[in-house]
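Course assignment 3, question 2. Fill in each field.
Student: A.L.
Task: Predict the tertiary structure for the chain below.
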Amino acid sequence: MRAPRSGTIVNVSSMDRLASLPANGYYSSSKFALEGFTEALWQEIEHVDLRAVIIQPGSFRTGIENRTKASGEAIADYADTAGAFCGLMGSLAPEMFPGDPERAAGAIYEVATAPQTPHWVVLGSSAQRRIGVKLEQLTAEFEAGKDRAYSTDFPGAADNAVL
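Answer field:
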């Protein structure tokens, strides 16, 4: 019999996993993949006393405004979506990032060393707001589509569903 282990794997994802932005799909797709992997991982390892936690940080003052630049010519058809986001990139300033990286590090440490850890942790007011809006949107669309979802099953098959 294997001796139980304990430890926590912390995946710092991004709020872009739940609330992507125009012109940011390449970044968000990597976060979606990492979060999906971590979600499967926590289900696989908890029985041996290992934990995996997804951290969803918002906008933190890490100096990213100095490293994030848009390039290329703007495409007129996307002026109101990706173009607007790219335009914003040129005007980023530290005060637009409310999160304090040191406080975030402390919160991550607390979560990783706690006896009981959640699977998912939101850090920063910007993440809390954006994720909240997205969850409200998802909930509304989920509820509105319930009849359509059930209409695509074989009659009576939902009672025998595996998942």
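Instructor remarks: The radius of gyration is 20 Å. The mean pLDDT is 82.
Grade: pending
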